[in-house]
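To whoever picks this up:

The nightly regression suite flagged Ferredoxin as changed. Nothing in the input moved, so I suspect the structure step. Input below, exactly as stored in the fixture:
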Amino acid sequence: MPRVIYLHAEAPPKPAPGRPCNGCGVCCASEPCPLGMLASRRRRGACRLLRWDAGGARYRCGLLDAPGGAAGPLRRHVAAAWRRFLARRIGAGQGCDASLEAVPADAPAA
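Regenerated output under the current build:
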C-alpha cells in the first residue's frame, strides 16, 4: 500500500539501495530505525530525530548532530566517540538500505 511522506522540496532524490547515503530522508521520514525508536519513543511514522540541514540541503540524524559542547577536549573527545558509535549503530555511511520507492508528488501516475 503506498504511503505519503513529506520531505523538504530541496531534499536530494533517494539513491539506489547500496549507493552512498545522500541525506534524502526517505528512510527516516518513513519510519524510525531501531535506535530512533528508543530515542524518540516512536515506532511508526517519521522519526522525531530527523533534522533538515538547510546549509547542506539534506536531512541528518538528530542523534548524530547533538552538540558536543565546549567544556574541554576530553568532553569533546567523548562526544565524538559517542557519535561514531551511534553512526555505526544506525548504519550511517554504510550506503542506502531503504528498499522504498520514492516518487515525487508531481510525478505522472503510472
